[in-house]
Write a structure and sequence with these properties.
The protein is of the alpha+beta class. It folds into two domains: 203 residues, no CATH class; 129 residues, no CATH class. Helices cover 32% and strands 21% of the residues. It contains eleven helices and 14 strands. An eight-stranded mixed β-sheet has the order 3-2-6-7-8-9-1-10, sandwiched between helices. Strands 5-4-12-11 form a four-stranded antiparallel β-sheet, with no helix packed on it. A hairpin with a 2-residue loop joins β13 and β14. α6 packs antiparallel against α9 and α7 crosses α9. The longest helix is centred in the C-terminal third of the chain and has 20 residues. The N and C termini lie far apart (48 Å).
């Protein structure tokens, strides 16, 4: 039998308030123009629990946009790595299932055959609390990608919460998460009826999706048709090469490294920052640029998310969060490009 607890909204905020002194609380906070942003939270009541999506995924607290890796002080002839965190651990509260899935994909990249020590340290020091989605976002299609609207992964997270009326059903993905939740006051043991309500809410949420895509055989179809005209037509008519799609994608992991030296030449720092395959110079190597056209760069984004990622990591690189099309200035939709290839295949136009 499944195990979990029921916690009222009032007791939830009281619990988070108590935790806020022993760790850094990060969560979704409502901003101007209807936007929600993940940031450090001082007052738990500021949390925007009913949010739909954010521009930047919570991955930025585990894999920061900019990060200093180490510094060299010439005066002391010393080398020093830069700590990626302070004295307190963090908890990211309210992560949607698709974004938690994205973090699990980043784990395969940064904690696979070659471990990234900076990522590992932040990942280890950060607790993750997932909040299931009771309804679909306008441009979300996570149900099609098997990443939502309720949590699908069974490891790699600490807590899972489902809003049941005004209460929260809390389940656990780690002993650390269970220990943390059991510090809350007003906990009640969850019963069979609570889990039945959760199952009903999940089915209702799945039915609320208006955006869907059939992923059956998609990787093979995409790879067989890399010369499909949809890439050239979309790139020439709409793609600005702005890199928005990759900057907001929760699974993109490419970065660039640069060295910075102070004007007095006493200190040198090595820093890394997010990079993008959609940037013109990303593929520039000695002798030329092997993705000099927007068509080639756009195709790279689509094929990596919907095809080659499966070969690399055994899953799609797209979680169905809808951020790339939401924040694209011209509304380019990778699902529509994929659907066009699928439709041409059904009509016998392409392989």
């Amino acid at each position: 039998m499944k195990k979990g607890y029921i916690l009222s909204r009032q007791n939830l905020f009281s619990w988070l308030t108590e935790l806020n002194g022993s760790l850094i609380l990060i969560g979704p906070v409502a901003k101007e123009r209807g936007q929600t942003v993940f940031e450090k939270v001082e007052v738990p009541q500021d949390l925007h629990i009913d949010y739909c999506s954010t521009m930047l995924a919570p991955r930025k607290f585990i894999y920061p946009e900019r990060q200093t890796l180490f510094s060299i002080t010439r005066e002391k002839n010393s080398y020093q790595t830069v700590s990626s965190s302070g004295s307190l651990s963090s908890m990211i509260f309210g992560i949607h299932p698709c974004d938690m899935h994205a973090i699990s994909i980043l784990d395969r990249t940064f904690l696979g055959d070659y471990e990234d020590s900076y990522y590992r340290r932040l990942r280890k020091e950060t607790m993750t609390c997932v909040l299931n989605c009771n309804k679909a976002c306008d441009k979300g299609f996570c149900s099609s990608m098997a990443t939502g609207p309720f949590l699908r992964i069974r490891e790699g997270y600490d807590m899972e919460m489902t809003m049941v009326k005004e209460d929260f059903l809390i389940e656990f993905g780690s002993q650390k998460g269970k220990t943390m939740v059991e510090k809350a006051k007003g906990l009640e043991q969850a019963g069979e009826s609570d889990f039945k309500q959760k199952a009903a809410l999940e089915q209702k949420a799945i039915l609320s999706f208006t955006k869907r895509i059939d992923t059956e055989g998609m990787p093979q179809l995409i790879m067989r048709n890399q010369d499909h005209p949809v890439y050239k037509e979309t790139a020439e008519a709409r793609c600005l090469g702005c890199t928005n799609c990759t900057m907001v994608c929760p699974t993109c992991y490419c970065y660039n490294i640069e060295d910075y030296t102070s004007f007095d030449l006493k200190i040198t720092e090595r820093r890394r920052h997010w990079d993008s395959c959609q940037e013109l110079n990303f593929a520039r190597v000695h002798g030329g640029n092997f993705r000099s056209s927007r068509q080639a760069r756009l195709r790279q984004f689509v094929t990596h998310k919907l095809a080659t990622w499966v070969e690399q990591y055994g899953c799609f690189g797209c979680t169905g969060c809808g951020r790339c099309m939401t924040w694209c200035p011209t509304g380019i939709d990778l699902t529509e490009m994929a659907k066009r290839i699928q439709e041409d295949h059904k009509m016998g136009i392409v392989r």
